[in-house]
């Protein structure tokens, strides 16, 4: 087992400045060659602790911006019209891409990966869709699917 200090956030392992203990192969073949970590020597730990403080300040700023954006998004109603059959069933479905396009028409720019849809919407009517703005910051919007005339 090797003791390393992370230089950047690594999913399922830790954030900048965290001292982690990983298997030799993971350190030698992944973390060290990709410059994601350095050996946990005393001077490296001190250096990374300072970087960790800077990282935490930056994260706090990003979270506050994301919370402000979430407040703007909360309660937004996105109306999407889709083709329906005679029995009022959708021919296709409403996907995350359609929601992004609908919000773009309202001058709200988000990325497709921010829309959290377990499965595409296949029915007419309104449903709530969560939007992940940043890490743990989410907002819920209402997507209303109407029949296209």
Descriptive account of the structure:
The protein folds into two domains: 2-62, 3-Layer(aba) Sandwich (Ribosomal Protein L9, domain 1); 74-147, Ribosomal Protein L9, domain 2 (Roll), CATH 3.10.430.100. A hairpin with a 2-residue loop joins strand 5 (125-134) and strand 6. With 149 residues, it is an alpha+beta fold. The protein has three helices and six strands. The strands form two sheets. The chain has a three-stranded antiparallel β-sheet. Strands 4-6-5 form a three-stranded mixed β-sheet, with helices on both faces.
Topology, element by element:
Layout: E1 2-6, E2 19-22, H1 24-31, E3 37-39, H2 42-73, E4 77-82, H3 96-105, E5 125-134, E6 137-147
Parallel strand pairs: 4-6
Antiparallel strand pairs: 1-2, 1-3, 5-6
């Amino acid at each position: 087992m090797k003791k390393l200090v992370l230089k950047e956030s690594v999913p399922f392992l830790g954030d900048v400045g965290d001292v982690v203990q990983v298997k030799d192969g993971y350190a030698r073949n992944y973390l060290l060659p990709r410059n994601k970590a350095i050996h946990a020597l005393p001077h490296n730990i001190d250096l990374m602790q300072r970087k960790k403080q800077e990282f935490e300040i930056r994260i706090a700023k990003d979270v506050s911006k994301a919370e402000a954006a979430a407040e703007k998004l909360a309660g937004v109603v996105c109306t999407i019209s889709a083709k329906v059959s005679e029995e009022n069933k959708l021919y296709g479905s409403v996907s995350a891409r359609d929601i992004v396009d609908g919000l773009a028409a309202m001058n709200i720019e988000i990325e497709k990966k921010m829309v959290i849809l377990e499965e595409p919407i296949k029915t007419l009517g309104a449903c709530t869709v969560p939007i992940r703005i940043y890490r743990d910051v989410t907002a819920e919007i209402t997507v209303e699917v109407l029949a296209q005339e």
